[in-house]
Every structure is written in structure tokens, then in C-alpha cells.
Amino acid sequence: MEEIAFEGGVRCLVNSPGELDPAKPTRLVLYAAPAGSSIEQTIGRRVESKADWLFDVQHIGAQTRWLRARMREVNRVVAEVQAEPKSFVRWKHVHPDHPARVGAMVGALRKKVPGATLVLTGRSGGGSFTFSSLDGVEKIPDDVERIVFLDSNDAYDATLGHPAKLAAWLAAANVHRLVVLAYEDHVALLGGQTFVGEQGGTGRRSQAMLRDFLGKMAFTRSEADGLQRPTALGGRVEFLLKENPTKAVLHPRQVELNGFIPAMVAGTERAGQGYGYLGARASGEWITER
């Protein structure tokens, strides 16, 4: 594990699988921590006290180990980034030059792992890191292989050119994949009250993304167990949209209950193998003590 401190109050932990096998392709996953969580809480560990609950609601570390155990044909490096004060949304407001700053961070991490393809992802407010990287370029680089929004596309904005950039990137190469996980958070109740505006939240932002993409690609829609799954481009674009008839707060559960796994394998032959999205923890045996 290597820690890097970036200018502007951003820290990063780079987790590599020991020695990288030069005969295998390497994927560098840039995972932005959500608002209110440290990198260590995002990675997760076993907890014995309710006071430590933030270490028990994501488990990116355990899910990474699960993926490495089953996908040995690739070197998977995960670089977790965290802004101070624990919110990339607030960090962007403090740093109006955030696209250039994020671009510099991504460039530095590219140099750490030369030749790797990139995955841009993150949960909740961590999606702001991904959008900052998109806002800083005219064209999404070809070495970005996968972009995933884990209930994190609140900052999606058509007026900033997001749909056009994503569509052009998807059209540029058949290995490019877009995955969006969200739920109907606008109806969720916390303490008996809604906490997301009718037009806000990741559920509504995901519907806006779908509408913007409809003129650029044809979607096939399926639904099972309250999960809507619009797909396009032979599965290279996939939305996993959870209905919410009970008005539950699912935001902290989506990643914990295997969300990082489909984020990494959606659209491939490994999709759906050995895990269930929003099911029992598939990576439970990989959760460590620290």
C-alpha cells in the first residue's frame, strides 16, 4: 500500500496485488471516496462496535480481493482518493480549477502504473471526482476503459457536455463500458421525511442520462425483482436502477451488498457469476480485521 498526498488536500492510497505480472494486462481503478468517509472506512474492515459502522458499509477492500481471486488474468490496482474535508463536492467549491487539479492527479497515477487501462468510479459524492476529470478534457482518453457511477451521478449535467463526451467515448472503442447504479432516492424517507428533491438525486439523474442517450443509441429494457436494467451497445452501456416501493434508504447498501463487483464485471461474461447485486455479501470471507 502506497500513500500519496496531492496538492489541495487530496490523499490517495494505491493498493497493488503484490508484484504485477508483466504478461497480464493491468487495470487501474480510481475510486473516489464518498462524502463523510475516509479511505480507510471505504476500504472497510470487521467491526465490533456500532460506533465503527462506517467501516462496515462499503467493503471495497473485500470486494477487490474477491475480484482478484476470481479474475487472475488481470492485474487489478485500486487507487482510492479522498478529499479534505471528506467531500469532493465541497472540495470542488473551494477549488474552481478542479478539472485541472483532477487531471493532474489522474496523470500522476497513470505514471505510477504505466500501460494500465483506467476505470473511473466512486460512490455518492465521489462521482464529482469523475465528472471533474470529464470536465477537464475535450475528449475522454482512450485508455479510460470503464466509467462507473455507483449511486454517484448527481453532478451529471447535459449543459456541460457530459452526454456528448460519454457517447463519443463509447463510440471510439468496443472496450469502453459505462455502468450506472442508482435507486429511486427521491421517494426514500429518512425520519419520515424525504431528503432528496423531486428532480434531484441519482435516480432522477440516471433517468436524465437515459433520455439524453436515447437519441444516440438504442436501448433494450428488462426488469426483474424490482430492478430495471436498460442496456445498449451490446451490453457496453448498462443501467441498474432499483425501484423503491418501501421508500427505503438504500444509498449505504448499494455498494456494501456487492455493488462494486457488478461495477467491474457488468457487460462481460463474468456478469452475475458468484454474486447477487443487493444480495448477501459475496465477499464476506474476504473482510479483514484491519
What does this structure look like?
The model has no long low-confidence stretch (mean pLDDT 94). It is built from eight helices and twelve strands. The chain has a ten-stranded mixed beta sheet with strand order 1-2-4-3-5-6-7-12-11-10, with helices on both faces. Helix content is 29%, strand content 24%. It has helices at residues 39-43, 60-70, 88-94, 98-112, 127-135, 162-172, 201-214, 253-265; strands at residues 2-6, 10-15, 26-32, 75-83, 117-122, 144-150, 177-183, 189-190, 193-194, 219-224, 227-232, 237-242. It has one domain: 3-Layer(aba) Sandwich (Rossmann fold), CATH 3.40.50.1820. Helix 2 packs parallel to helix 8 and helix 4 (98-112) packs across helix 5. It has 290 residues and is an alpha/beta fold. It is globular.
Write the layout of secondary structure elements.
Elements: E1 2-6, E2 10-15, E3 26-32, H1 39-43, H2 60-70, E4 75-83, H3 88-94, H4 98-112, E5 117-122, H5 127-135, E6 144-150, H6 162-172, E7 177-183, E8 189-190, E9 193-194, H7 201-214, E10 219-224, E11 227-232, E12 237-242, H8 253-265
